[in-house]
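FORM 12-B: Structure-to-Sequence Request
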């Protein structure tokens, strides 16, 4: 699937803009603050149903206006698809998939596959577990769009279960038991998918990190359960029994905390570099190489299904790297797909592009190459 056209109305800094994209490499060229990243963000929203920079869709509305509209038109060899997302300052959302209306941004997932590389990706390595969970879940949902509903239902049940723990007098034992069983039933496929994805990513991340860094440091990645378990059961009933045992052990602790203390919403991914936690020991360059390795590994994984070859979104990534790493990253990028690259300087990109868009003063001007 390739993006043919991007159209925005009152999205972030853009009043109105339309891009006719090339099926290869598209360079968004302009100084910092001109709105390059906002264009990539709009593509991300239309493809994945959320922004990589904000969890509130209201933040995407241009200052002084009351609603944004973002629209992507894409196609493969035969089938076109149009994805549109809109939200106003009151949080009222509207989604259109080939004209069919809806109100959940998650309905956009599964039609257009994208993988983004962003300066903020350093936080994959150094930040809290929420970012790593979000990365895994976005990849899970692009690999299997049916998991969107599972994750949404799980979040709803955990919210209800937390309410029952906070106000036990309002929820009798039968209601709490139903919520417990719903949570465990939904947790199992989430954990299975996350661990499977991580197994597939592991060999790719180590190889890509080595290619980018030019070194031979060993990389380890493993899934860590809510209480540090590195050996969670992998499948079905055994995994469900483990979660049930955890629930029973935490009954008193959860009553005191008035919160759900275990499950996929509290798990983490541990990244090791030379056998040590990268979160604590990785340098800036090592953390950046690991983060890029994770993103490119996810692109490779998705591209293994020809129907899901991802569009790459690279947000000023080359500007963050030194000369040798720029060249190594350029050599690692797939040449047979579509990409959108932001850069303040053409010289930051050590390769040719197919189409260049010059951004200045709220305007976009297309040039060749």
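FORM 12-B RESPONSE
SEQUENCE OUT:
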């Amino acid at each position: 699937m390739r993006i043919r056209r991007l159209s925005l109305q009152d999205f972030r800094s853009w009043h109105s803009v339309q891009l006719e994209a090339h099926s290869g490499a598209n360079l968004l060229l302009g100084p910092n603050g001109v709105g390059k990243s906002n264009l990539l963000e709009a593509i991300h929203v239309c493809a994945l149903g959320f922004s990589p920079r904000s969890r509130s869709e209201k933040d995407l509305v241009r200052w002084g206006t009351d609603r944004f509209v973002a629209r992507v038109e894409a196609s493969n060899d035969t089938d076109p698809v149009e994805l549109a997302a809109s939200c106003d300052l009151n949080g009222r959302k509207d989604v259109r998939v080939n004209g069919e209306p809806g109100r959940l941004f998650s309905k956009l997932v599964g039609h257009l596959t994208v993988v983004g590389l962003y300066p903020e990706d350093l936080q994959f390595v150094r930040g809290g577990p929420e970012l790593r969970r979000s990365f895994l879940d976005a990849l899970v949902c692009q690999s299997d769009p049916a998991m969107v509903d599972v994750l949404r239902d799980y979040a709803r049940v955990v919210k209800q279960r937390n309410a029952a723990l906070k106000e036990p007098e309002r929820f009798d034992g039968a209601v709490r038991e139903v919520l417990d069983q719903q949570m465990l039933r939904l947790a199992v496929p989430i954990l299975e998918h996350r661990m499977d994805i991580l197994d597939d990513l592991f060999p790719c991340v180590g190889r890509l990190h080595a290619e980018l860094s030019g070194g031979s440091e060993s990389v380890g990645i493993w899934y860590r359960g809510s209480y540090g378990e590195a050996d969670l059961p992998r499948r079905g009933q055994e995994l469900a029994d483990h979660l049930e045992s955890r629930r029973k052990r935490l009954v008193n602790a959860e009553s005191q905390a008035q919160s759900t203390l275990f499950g996929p919403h509290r798990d983490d991914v541990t990244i090791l570099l030379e056998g040590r936690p990268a979160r604590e020991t990785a340098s800036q360059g090592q953390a950046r190489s690991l983060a890029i390795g994770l993103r490119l590994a996810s692109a490779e994984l998705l591209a293994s299904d020809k129907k899901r070859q991802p569009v790459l979104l690279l947000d000023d990534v080359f500007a963050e790297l030194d000369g040798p790493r720029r060249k190594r990253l350029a050599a690692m990028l797939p040449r047979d797909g579509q990409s959108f690259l932001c850069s303040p300087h053409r010289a930051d990109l050590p390769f040719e592009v197919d189409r260049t868009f010059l951004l200045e003063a709220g305007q976009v001007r297309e040039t060749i190459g």
